[in-house]
Amino acid sequence: IVEPLSAVPINDELQQARELVAKAEAEVLLKITEKMQVDLDGIENLFNCMIRLDVINARASYSLSFGGTCPDIFLPEADDGCLAAEALPGNKISMASYPTKRKWTLYLPKAYHPLLLQQHRQNMQKAKKDVSNAIADIRRRKLQGENMTQKEETDINLSFLEMQVTKLQQAYPVPVDIFVAQKTRVLVITGPNTGGKTICLKTVGLAAMMAKSGLHVLSSEPVKIPWFDFVFADIGDEQSLSQSLSTFSGHLKQISNILKHSTSQSLVLLDEVGAGTNPLEGAALGMSLLESFAETGALLTIATTHHGELKTLKYSNDAFENACTEFDEVNLKPTYRILWGIPGRSNAINIAERLGLPNIILVNARELYGAASAEINEVIIDMEKFKQNLHEHIHEAQHYLMLSRDLHENLLVTRRKVMQHGTDQRYRKMQEISEVAAMARSILHKKVRQLRASATLTSQPTIANKSQHTPAINSQNSPPDNIKLSVATKAKYSIDNIRQSPSEKRAKLPKVGDMVHVSSLNRKATVLKVEPSKEEMVVQAGNIKLKLKLADVIT
Questions:
Q1: Residue 547: strand pairing partners
Q2: Who wins on pLDDT, 79 or 340?
């Protein structure tokens, strides 16, 4: 570059000015630094507070933006819980709120992977923006009176862009449901490739980390997550040329490190456990690793696998639970939903068919697969059928138990009503008897008074004659006083006896050797035997032994 001579002085002045500005800036910065050194600790504390506030604000903004749920974080306990499959009858996705009566290690319904949700949101925003821009461009050209060519109309295909928006709305990410009972230590997830097993692992791990970080968990329902002290993950290919590690050895090194550092409060996520080597040896090693985690390892271990042998661990160890990703065998594509208590199949041949592999290869593969794995699949299917039948019988027994309890309660209520009705009837009858007896006594007394009054009004001889007959009349029409007393006393005792409660009756029962009054004999008697259940007693009046009802005697 050749600098003109006329520009040399100006450039020199410019360079000097730049040097002066740099020197002034350095002096200002030096003075500021000297002043900051006096209050350096306070400034650092203020700066750290600003960072913390900014992080808190970022957490709140993120949570509000995605609309998650504030998780219920708890310290795990050693109580037993319930099976997740029992909590989801029919393997339907739960629509209910958090069930407080159940005990869970992890309750994560309708959880979304944050990156999938963010990617979908960005795609939606871009598609809607394209539609808005297209509409604005069409309006602008119409206002300017421009005639668009066929190519320009094709470039601005509004209906196509709107269709893209509709497709994105229909392709909303599918949430996963993770329900792990408190006594479950290892969850084995099986299912087809591209079915969402790894996404499920990552969703659980991110949910645990988001909860610990103070973020809302991306779920539309209440969430319960334990406070995991560490979250360990072996996901992806760990091969390394620099360290001479293959895929299998890379996984083993990572798992060995997890075994060394995990505690009883840790979460361990293992993707494709036992993969990368001979299937038989890999399955045996995977079973041993998972059993080790179940006995002395982490609080919760979630592992994905294609090894059929790992699916059988649930049937020999209560600490294991099975789950699988659902596969639509009609449309030959995964649904990305989790089914609980059911071991899944890889469906690799079906997926290969969907991806366009030649039919002759698929037919041969199905023949080879059927010969190699029919036995283990039959065992699993038989176990699942047995389990399903067992659950059906249990539900049926519980149903009949509830019915029998209801019938028993109804029977007790009916019995009480019948007994009360009988008591009321006896009480009314005895009241009627008492009223009739009182009426009879009243009539007799009235008749006697009339006879006596009529006798005093006659002449003396007549009186004398009448007086001879009056005693006879009186004796014929007026019952003896002791008989009247006996009837009245017996009726009164019967009414009082009905009114008394069973406890009062038992308290007033005569004892052997007590003296009681026998109403029918109008005399005292000695109690020889008492039978409360029959409401009877045996008494002796002189030389006579009688078996009487309790209502026939007066204590």
A1: 538
A2: 340
Res. 97: pLDDT tops 50: no
* Mean per-residue pLDDT of the chain: 78
Amino acid at position 306, single letter = H
- Global pTM? 0.56
Residue listed under structure tokens 């979304």: 112
The sign one gets for the Cα dihedral 83, 89, 91, 94 is: negative
- Sorted by where each begins, the domain ranges of the chain are 5-36+43-68, 69-86+182-357, 119-170, 501-555
**Interior angle at CA 16, CA 15 and CA 22, nearest 5:** 90
Is 282 exposed, middle or buried, given 0-12, 13-18 or 19+ CB atoms closer than 10 A? buried
| Tokens found for residue 371 | 């010969």
Which residues fall within 8 angstroms of residue 467, CB to CB, at 6 or more apart? 455
* 111 within 8 A of 219, measured Cβ to Cβ: yes
If we measure between CA atoms, which residue out of 272, 228, 267, 230 comes closest to residue 252? 272
Q: 302-353, pLDDT tens digit by residue?
A: 999 888 788 888 888 889 998 888 877 677 677 888 888 777 666 677 777 7
Q: Which of 198-212, 353-367, 423-437, 497-511 has the highest mean pLDDT?
A: 198-212
Architecture of domain 501-555: Roll (2.30)
What pLDDT is recorded for position 206?
A: 94
Dig out the tokens for 436 from the structure: 């009739």
Residue type, 318: D
Contact 473, 451 (CB under 8 A): yes
Lowest mean pLDDT among 87-101, 240-254, 281-295: 87-101
Secondary structure of residue 276 in the 3-state scheme? coil
Query: Which of 113, 107, 117, 231 is CA-nearest to residue 178?
Result: 107
Query: What confidence tens digit (pLDDT) does each residue in 521-540 have?
Result: 778 889 998 888 878 889 88
- Tens of pLDDT, residue by residue over 406-428, are 999 899 898 888 888 888 888 88
Phi, psi of 352 (to 5 degrees): -60, -35
DSSP secondary structure string, 473-541? HHHHHS--HHHHHHHHHHHHHHHHHHHS-HHHHHHTPPPTT-EEEETTTTEEEEEEEEETTTTEEEEEE
Structure tokens at 17: 């000015």
Q: Please give the CATH topology (third level) of the domain spanning 69-86+182-357.
A: Rossmann fold (3.40.50)
Of residues 521, 438, 549, the one with CA closest to residue 484: 438
In eight-state DSSP terms, residue 217 is B
Rounded CA separation 493/425 (Å): 16
Alpha-carbon span 192 to 354, nearest angstrom: 13
**pLDDT value at 371 more than 60:** no
The two tokens of residue 260 are 């060394």
3-state secondary structure labels for all residues of 318-374: CCEEEEEEEEECCCCEEEEEEEECCCCCCCHHHHHHHCCCCHHHHHHHHHHHHHHHH
Q: Which pLDDT value is given to residue 496?
A: 54
Can you name the residues that pair with 69 across neighbouring β-strands? 217
Is-contact 105 300, C-beta < 8 A? yes
Amino acid at 93: I
